[in-house]
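Exercise 3.2. Students should predict the tertiary structure of the chain below and write it as structure tokens, then compare their answer with the key that follows.

Predict this chain's 3D structure.
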Amino acid sequence: MTTADYTEKIPNNVDLHEDRRLQRALESWQPNFLNWWESMGPRLPTQEVYLRTAVNVGREGWAHFDHVAMRDYRWGIFLAERDRDRRIAFGQHKGEPVWQKVPGEYRADLQRLIVIQGDTEPASVEQQRNLGATAPSLYDLRNLFQVNVEEGRHLWAMVYLLHAYFGREGREEAEELLHRNSGSEDAPRILGAFNEETPDWLSFFMFTYFTDRDGKYQLGTLKESAFDPLSRTCEFMLKEESHHMFVGTTGIDRVVERTVQLMIEHDTDEVGPRGGIPLTVIQKYLNFHYSVSLDLFGSETSTNVANYFTSGLKGRWLEERRRDDHRLTGEAIMVDAVTDEGDIGQTEVAALVGLNTDLRREYIGDCQNGVNRWNKILDSAGLPQRLRLPHVAFNRKVGAFAGIEAAPDGTPISAEEWARRKSGWLPTDLDKTHVRSLMRPVHERGKIAAWIAPPRQGINGKPFDYDYVHLA
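Answer key:
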């Protein structure tokens, strides 16, 4: 069992006290983090929140629940237990012992991968900072804050790696992670999806379902890394990430469930005037967040990702379960492409350069599971409507489909037709205004907003009407 030392100023299970120089550097970064949290973190004033805090990363359990003041949350540094027999599972170094230090030839690439991952963590906190003011229940408010503090801890995870293994350049990058801000014109976050607004709770649930699910797959590829401290860091982060996706999955469950109740009660699809979110609007939000999240996987082909794989920096999702040579030399894959005639099709490329496509397809299959789940709610109610993932070419800004327009079913269309019809596929200002009009706060124990159904169970065995949040 790897136990966190909570007697330290920075809780950790990496024996930080044994490296005084590193400890001092991180302790000097800590006030900057807290200043960022105060200025860019959750805006709603609270006294205490019922939060989960990591206590160890072993198999015997790793979380402790209690009411804590968020500013006093014990953010720290936690790596999964080390496997001293672990060997590199893929690429040209396959079979060699994993690295405990950064090889000089891979230093720049590893640093870049860590910075990009690290940049997403505070970005989502910034995107969600105003949502507490419109929470549909104390249960949901608590879940929002749990996501927020864990994203803050994930930032700590990447900052530790930058400080511990990348010297002065790493320390400078760690500072920059607090200077960029989501949506800033002067210093935006690195990836486009993390500069989008999250102005309402339907957007939040879609974000935690689709965009945090992208995070799951990106962390999964980094967990395979030959750089063992990065691998162990991501393994632990994935445990926390699962709760974020749970919030999204069950949140959309509950929105669909309430919409179905209103449709049946009033015998109409037009539940907007009855205080609900129409299925057509839920579909538009789904279309937007899914397509934006697909862009996070990058282009269909990438020599950079091929090099990351060959070098051992970044593997595939569930690498060791793959039934191939784990080197992919001579292997091929079909990737999405636009033909010379302008049609949407596929082309064959070397498997190494098609790794982004491989990962995106794993993600798409996972996303479909959620859609199937939401459609079961509709089916159980005897309703014929169904939610659907749009085609991979729909509303894309990165990759093979960035230069074309396509309908949700994948039919290529002209720019003029897109402009004419996109209001039927993506949220309009009117749709957003309606959703925001429903976002009235419900901060009373056991009460919930009228546009969403209550959860089937609470957190950590507590009932829905538990006092999850003590407001200031």
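Discussion points: The mean pLDDT is 96. The chain has one domain: 16-471.
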